[in-house]
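Task: encode each sequence below as structure tokens.

Item 1
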Amino acid sequence: MDIGGCKSTMEYVYAALLLHKLKQGITEDGVKNVVKAAGVTPDDVRVKALVAALSEVNIEEALKAAPVAVAAAPAAGGAAPAAQAKAEEKKDEKKEEEALEGLSSLFG
């Protein structure tokens, strides 16, 4: 979905997601009002393009199909980030050990 390039379009997408979450229609006026409330002067062309593009999208299905970020894991169970941090810590320790072994081989 190209709505006028990547530069500065996220606030429009967030506005649309907020409207969807609040079960409001995603209209040009609605998106403009949310963007204005965020302190940004809305670009009419981007608003119009976004609303037109989203009119053909089932947002609920798109959100279900979207990949879930690792940061969302605490809501699901809470233990995943701790386990991931521990695994990364072990990887870092192993890399450090390997680096030390490499240095010791240089100096025998």
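Item 2
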Amino acid sequence: MKIEALKELGFEMIVEEKGEIFHGYACDLLSEVMGRAKPDTVWFTVQSHINIIAVAVITGIRAIVLCNGHDYDEGTIERSKKEGISLFKTELNTFEAIKKLCNVMQDEIQG
């Protein structure tokens, strides 16, 4: 799935970068994400500080969706632009946001 397709799901794009995602991961514990997330992943979290960008770079995560209506701070936004990580946000909680993504991906698979 192209990263920009996350906009079509209603996620607000904060930083746009091109690329594709093939996996999803939901977690708020950074060490867990570093140890388990795959490259080319979209990561759903409520963490918004600059350290999430470092985790994304280390793991190869391509996009982050910030849930529960939280906002990114300016430092996080600027670092994501520098590192090429797409940022999105949503008012939905993590479960609802992932459910939305899974429904679309399931439709694509069933064709």
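Check on item 2: The longest strand covers residues 41-45. Helices lie at 30-36, 51-59, 74-83, 94-110.
End of task.
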